[in-house]
Give the backbone structure.
Amino acid sequence: MSIVAENLTWGVKRRMIVQDVSLSVAPGETLGLIGPNGSGKSSLLRLLAGLRRPASGRVEINGQNIAQVSRKALSRQVAFVQQSAATDTNVTVADVVRLGRTPHRSALAGWSEADEAAVTQALGRVEMASRRKQAWQTLSGGERQRVHIARALAQAPQVMFLDEPTNHLDIHHQIEILRMVRELDLTSVIALHDLNLAAMFCDRIVVLEGGAVRACGTPGAVLTPELLRQVFRVTAHVSWSPDSDRPHIRFSGEKAQAPG
Amino acid sequence: MSSDTSGDGAARLVLFLGLSLVTLILAVAAATAIGDYNIALRTVFLSVTNELGLTGAEIAPIEQSVIWNLRLSRALVAALAGAGLAICGAILQALLRNALAEPFVLGVSAGASTGAVCVIVLGIGAGSLSLSLGAFAGAFAAFALVALLSNGATSGPNHTILAGVAASQLFNALTSYIVTTSGNAQQARDVMFWLLGSFGGVRWPDFQLLLGVVLVSLAICILMARSLDAFTFGDEDAAALGVPVVRIRLVLFGVTALLTATIVSMVGAIGFVGLVVPHAARYVVGPMHMRLLPACAMVGAVFMVIADIASRMIATQQTVPIGVVTALVGVPFFAIILYRARPQA
């Protein structure tokens, strides 16, 4: 499923947080959203997922304006994975993944075989099938994130939005989660902080600065020392390993020159 | 926690509901038999079947009247009030994502007391009907204020809780002001006693009204049970699962306010039940609301009927306010649950 955003604008009171953003994501593509703190990554992600209404502009998913689709119908196609979601409720892993079936069930419908199959498959996909009875509270950060991705998969979406899914995870789990997402047969948009992870796993990258799109393209085209210095205010060297077409960024500890 | 496959969990729930229904019937029978003047259980059952036209046993008219007109209606209202408060507690704990939420968190009881005081002390209106109406009006005034302060419940849970605290403080202050400036000692005592709750004086019309309100509320809540589950990880997460968050919140806040206001205006602000019963029920049937809400209703009903029996037995010739008993009876049970449910570190 394709995603097209046209001239999205959104703000709180008089402060504009997302300014005139247009982008498109091709079916099956993995798009990375990067940008410094406060550049509007999370807000843009929520606008794209239909969790917030833009002040102006529109989002189309598979050619359909999402403002005209009901919440429930939208959530059968679009899943959203929050960064470090938490609860005090004493739920099991299976309970959490079952929540993913919410948009597919009517108010009183029983638990169907299709629901059970979706949950089992989703748990298997994130390699948590043997943990379904475990209390969610006892999981580690990486396991919780995998369970939340399983819940999103149980929604049977065609589009997945992930807000910094690798936050607070060790490097192994960061790579595992992003590899898993890229291998899914889905269109996905991921907000990321780690530029090297974005370079490794995204087909294309959108760089946000001050709520507006600063650059858009393949990792190699976007992640240049010049852009990194201007947007992120760091001195960086970009190298290319001989066995891949993806750039690798090495940061310098020296103070960056002022942008401009 | 519910077992893994839904079938087992459903069987467990049915077993639990069946057991608690039997317990409830026995508790109501006991509540009808026990009193200043004890009546044999057999007589109680025969009296009920007589009234229903199933038997024609001979029972002294005085006993028949005590059983049917005083005690049975009282026990059934107690059961409904317990069920209603427990449901409200479970709903508010889920919507506000706060384990300490209870039916009075939205200022309803404080508003009801102000309304009741206006009737008792200021003499607005007259008679017991207007006391209930005054309490009901006050309860809804408080709820309206909370809804206004929290932007129609569209702000976050903590905002709503703070609005409830503010409304409670305001209405409690109003109550104290009215009592201290214009009340006498007897009136103040009446007000306090009424606030702590009493099932004395409830009759069949109260039962019918409360039955209707509880059944309609429970039906609405059951229809929204799936959506309530989706609030587990917060409002935005619920929205991402396709739940119309604002609409669900408004409807459920409205239902809990209506149910609580009806109960408070009838029997006073009975604390503890709405806070504790949901936790106890969750311990047995798990946190998912399709199971939790019916379980809460049954546990709340049984608990309140037993508390009412205790309130009449603790002190001879005196009726201890029901709110005192719910805490006295409830805390030991709750302590056991808290102890057994402690995290397995």
Residues 1-77+157-218 of chain A form a domain with the Rossmann fold fold (CATH 3.40.50.300). The mean pLDDT of chain A is 91. The radius of gyration of chain A is 19 Å. The interface with chain B takes residues 46, 49, 51, 70-76, 79-80, 82, 85-92, 94-96, 99-100, 102-103, 105, 107-108, 110-111, 116, 132-133, 135, 137, 155 of chain A (CB under 8 Å).
